[in-house]
Amino acid sequence: MSMKPLKLFLTLLAFSSFSFANAVETGHANVSIIKSGIDKGGDGELFIGIKMDMQPHWHTYWKNPGDSGGPLEVTWDVSKNIQVSDVYWPAPELIPYPPLMTYGYEDFVIFPFKLDISDSSGSNYINADIDFLICDDICVPERAIINTTIDELLIDKRLIDWLEKIPSTTLPVLATQNDNYLELRFSFNDDIKDIYFYIEEKDIVLYASEQEVFKEENNWLLRVALEDKKVLSANVHGILSINNNSFLIDGELATQGESVNSLSILQAILFAFIGGLILNLMPCVFPIISLKVLSFVSMGGESEDKIRKHSLSFCFGVIISFVLIALVLLGLKQSGVFVGWGFQLQSPVIVGVLSILMFLIGVVLLMDINIGSSLTRLGSIGSKDDSYSGSFLTGVLAVVVASPCTAPFMGAAIGYALIQPSLITIPIFLSLGLGFAAPYLILSIRPELISSMPRPGQWMETLKEFFAFPMFATSLWLLWVFSLQAGTDALINLLMALLIISILIWAFSKVINSYLKIIILSTMVAVLIYQVIAISSMSNVDKQETKGSIISGWTKDTEKKFKENNQAYLINFTAAWCITCQANDKIALSRPNVKQYLKDNDIEYLVADWTNRDKEILSVLNQYGRSGVPLYVYWKPGMKESKLLPAILTEQIVIESL
Predict the structure, then answer these.
(1) What is the CA 31 to chain-centroid distance, rounded?
(2) DSSP secondary structure string, 510-557?
(3) Quick one: 209 and 62 in the same domain?
(4) Do residues 461 and 365 make contact, with C-beta atoms less than 8 angstroms apart?
(5) Of 643, 657, 651, 652, whose CA–CA distance to 585 is shortest?
(6) Is 10 in the same domain as 152?
(7) Higher pLDDT, 450 or 656
(8) For 333-358, what is each residue's pLDDT tens digit?
């Protein structure tokens, strides 16, 4: 027998360890599999971890090791009732070895994995073949083979600590290539003392080169040197470490034309004002605004001071609501939750409550009953109520129902605002509110304009009753959105609640006894509270099925794949709660002429539905400088960059744009 194969076998054996227990020595590390002991992922899920306790100053590597090294590789053999996820990579640290720079973990690391266990009563064996590279002054490939079971795994609370080191917050960035640099622009409210971008793509950047950070007028800029003559692909992924806080980066490389930095602050404020002004004419807002206009008409003959105060009350309701929305968005952003315009209608609870509210307003307008609450003062017409709270609340309600609509100029302004620091975001939303309230601010300055409108009369009462039907239509539309979000069972429960409320309102209109009226009102409130609780606790059983049928094959890599294949495309970013989106679909995108044009010119048409929250869709919206829908993205071979279609579409606009 030749000695060479024997020597090779002994060499491999020296750096490989086999264990039917749990912990093994591989030469420079003690390797074991542990579990947290906490069902962190929900029923049937368990987190385990490959723990490596390395000798002092030895290290192993992240998924992209940097200038040298190699990542962990694990081959699993588990019971049929167990599925093992890919590794959950904790945020790495810099491990310099001049002139090289590597990314990894020194002395100690736990690599988490998630187990999906379909049947906990079945067999639960776990066999892992673990290959890894471990280095100090020299690098040694080592291997551990562990055969164990879930029951035999030791509980180690440190696994929870390493799970917390896995970044979960995606930071919106604008990524561009400028000569031989990758440039990342982003918003961060605090001073940056320490920053580093760990890029996931290999052989792209100069790892050992210093990364430069600059404070620009409205954001931060990080410049990362690229390999010589390296051209970036369409997507950039990785982890951005800022002041020891780690954020996920998942961005599409944008050209200058796609960057919202092409907007200045003054342009964004102007666009927001114009968009707010146009918002008054959008279909989601028009019924509420019309009721308020009629209430002003009913004040004909009243003192100018009273008209002025009602106008200002309405304006305050509008402006304060827009500022509050900005503060909520900023608060969510600071907590790591990034949302966009119309985010509240991604909640089935809010959609359900709004559908009930619109239905109630419709019933009150049609039956002309006085419930004695603020509800009947929303847009009250010809009533003797001198309270200004009704005008204020009408302004609040107008802003709430405006969220499904995106007027022209609004998309770019809001998209710009949400990636800027707080001092920039709030003035833009304030400008949006001022634009929305501008007609009523003019009325507060010149209340005598009321006298130029038609005189009050019976026509107003008839028109008020007519406006009950747009309220019912709005309620029906919200019910449709709710069914997409929460499923059929939840919709039936909500319809039953509307039926009960209808009966209670009818009973309220018939009884005279004040105590009975209080009981009926209390019952109505109890039904509403019960419905909110029921919706909150109900799982979205139909959500995934609905989403899959609407997205029609869209993924965050769709554009990259189409461009690689020289395939023209038109992507419609939409949502069921977005009235502008639905109007564009009916008026333009679903028309036979447009469909035929897409077919004749081999343009792939895809729909990305944002009815329910979706981080990937929000990430792509941010890349195009938007924070809400609609967004229409068009590209064909020969174009250097994608083209954005207008927010308001017609057949002619679509065909001419394409």
Answers:
(1) 39
(2) H---HHHHHHHHHHHHHHHHHHHHHHHHS--TTHHHHHHHHHTT--TT
(3) no
(4) no
(5) 651
(6) yes
(7) 656
(8) 666 555 555 556 667 777 787 788 77
Specify the pLDDT at position 472: 83
What Å distances lie between residue 526 and 355, 512, 529, CA to CA?
17, 21, 5
Q: What gap in Å lies between CA 574 and CA 552, rounded to an integer? A: 12
Phi, psi of 24 (to 5 degrees): -135, 150
Residue-wise pLDDT tens digits, 381-398 = 434 445 677 778 777 877
**CATH (domain of 91):** 2.60.40.1250
- Do 314 and 396 share a structural domain? yes
Q: Domain check: are 179 and 244 in the same one? A: yes
Q: Which of 280, 295, 297 is nearest to 452 (CA)?
A: 297
Specify the CATH number for the domain of residue 196: 2.60.40
Question: How far is Cα 131 from Cα 26, in angstroms, rounded to an integer?
Answer: 10
53-90, pLDDT tens digit by residue?
Answer: 999 999 999 999 998 889 999 999 998 888 899 999 99
CA 464 to CA 179: how far, in whole Å? 62
Helix (H, G, I), strand (E, B) or coil at 43: coil
DSSP secondary structure, 304-360, as one string: HHHHHHHHHHHHHHHHHHHHHHHHHHHHHHHTT----TTGGGGSHHHHHHHHHHHHH
Among 163, 183, 205, identify where a domain stops: 163
Strand-pair partners of 385: none
To the nearest 10°, report the CA torsion of 233, 237, 238, 243.
100
Per the CB < 8 A criterion, the answer to whether 140 and 28 are in contact is: yes
Q: What are phi and psi for residue 157, nearest 5 degrees?
A: -65, -20
Judgement on whether residues 101 and 23 belong to the same structural domain of the protein: yes
Specify the length of the chain in residues: 658
| Full residue range of the structural domain in which residue 180 is found | 174-253
Residue percentage of the chain with pLDDT more than 70:
75
Cβ–Cβ under 8 Å, residues 72 and 60: yes
pLDDT at 163: 92
According to DSSP, the β-strands at 125-135 and 139-149 are antiparallel
DSSP letter at 587 equals I
Instruction: Name residue, tokens 């609509």.
Output: 405
630 neighbors 580 (Cβ within 8 angstroms): yes
**Tokens representing residue 523 in the block:** 């019952």
Cross-strand bridge partners of residue 580: none
What average pLDDT does the chain have? 77
